[in-house]
From TrEMBL:
Membrane topology: Multi-pass membrane protein
Keyword Transmembrane helix: no
GO cellular component, one term: cell outer membrane
Protein name: Polysaccharide export protein
Stored InterPro entries: Poly_export, Poly_export_N, SLBB_dom
UniProt GO BP: monoatomic ion transport
Length: 377
């Protein structure tokens, strides 16, 4: 500050009058954010929102990257179940084959031997109470049966009315044994299940595939009132999370754009998407353009994060991670530090910037007077 007084004194008495104003303005010079000591001060117990300050090194990495397993992995919803049971709303196609006198197609007898006659009944919808109405057989309980067992039930009801009636039943519209695929797919809707047994990824493919990148897509499966989620790019075919689907399952594809925000002494303040499921601090700083060599303090690269509660049911904990990029080992550490969605990277301003900005302001303030003085000599 002594050089500042000398600088102002050289400008004359008018400059001396402005000196108190300039000194008072030292604390209010334009800045893109706090300096490193000011950020560190936020970790003191007396701060308004005390944060936990952690210096990033090899010892800290094991704790930093230890995240709880994703709650509700799809494998936890695995269950056994049938996909060939008839239920209300299903549309059945019933064919009856008879020998001799036919109930459904009239007499068909030749002089040599009785002829076999086949008749197809109009499509029948399973009623809300789970029954179907068959001519001559009356109401037959269909819900909960397979097509084969229902055919045997109808044959038993027709016995005595038709000679050796044989019944074939096909589910023409499968409403009961189906799943719903919703959200970010090209053709959302109901997908019937087949005896080939479809998995989660099969249903997504049958729905036309996703409309967004896999790393930005979450899959939520709801089964029997329980839900679980997993990233689409983390779901591998044939893995335990690629569930065998059961009737009534709901699959939702949700867009989950992951991003981090950059502030401070960087070339541009911005929100930057991950564009991948796992992003390291080294990659994040590089995408942000790195610390500005004109104003940044490379010893003070901070990551602000709301960490998981330290106790079950507790409140999230504000944590500040500090990286010193003047240390060579920090570049190895930054390659192992995993970014999380919503993280904030702050690159602190160098403390020397304040003095440089003050000198610049003084030069701008007095250069007109100095120019006039030189011209009037």
């Amino acid at each position: 500050m002594t050089s500042l007084f000398a600088f102002v004194a050289a400008r004359g008495r008018g400059a001396m009058l402005a000196l108190p104003l300039l000194v008072a303005g030292c604390a209010t010079l334009p800045s893109s954010g706090p300096t490193a000591p000011e950020v560190i001060a936020a970790s003191r117990p007396t701060a308004r929102l005390p944060a936990k300050l952690i210096d990033l090194d090899a010892e800290a990495l094991s704790d930093v990257n230890t995240a709880p397993a994703p709650a509700g992995a799809l494998a936890g919803l695995a269950a056994e179940g049938d996909i060939d049971r008839i239920g209300p709303g299903d549309v059945l196609q019933i064919s009856v084959f008879e020998i001799g006198t036919a109930l459904f197609a009239g007499p068909a007898v030749t002089e040599v031997q009785p002829a076999a006659t086949g008749s197809t009944l109009p499509a029948i919808v399973v009623a809300r109470d789970g029954t179907i109405q068959i001519p001559y057989a009356g109401a037959v309980e269909a819900a909960g049966q397979t097509p084969q067992s229902l055919a045997r039930s109808v044959e038993a009801r027709l016995r005595g009315y038709s000679e050796q009636a044989q019944v074939n039943i096909v589910v023409r519209e499968n409403m009961t044994n189906s799943v719903f695929v919703l959200g970010g797919v090209k053709a959302p809707g109901r997908i019937p299940l087949s005896l080939a047994r479809e998995h989660v990824l099969d249903a997504i493919a049958l729905a036309g595939g996703t409309t967004s990148a896999p790393h930005d897509t979450m899959i939520r499966v709801t089964r029997a009132g329980r839900s679980a989620e997993i990233g689409l790019d983390e779901l591998l075919a044939g893995s335990p999370d690629d569930l065998l689907l059961l009737p009534g399952d709901r699959i939702e594809l949700l867009r989950n754009l992951q991003s981090f925000t950059v502030f401070g002494a960087s070339d541009k303040v911005s929100e930057i998407p991950f564009e991948m499921r796992r992003l390291t601090l080294a990659q994040a700083v590089a995408r942000a353009g790195g610390p500005s060599d004109r104003q940044a303090d490379p010893t003070a690269v901070f990551v602000f994060r709301w960490a998981a509660p330290e106790t079950p049911g507790g409140a999230p904990v504000p944590v500040i991670y500090r990286l010193n990029m003047l240390r060579p080992e920090s570049y190895f550490v930054s390659q192992r530090f995993a970014m999380r969605n919503g993280d904030v990277i702050y690159i602190a301003n160098a403390r020397s910037n304040q003095a440089a900005k003050l000198v610049q302001i003084i030069n701008q303030l007095f250069s007109p007077f100095y120019g006039v003085r030189e011209l009037t000599r």
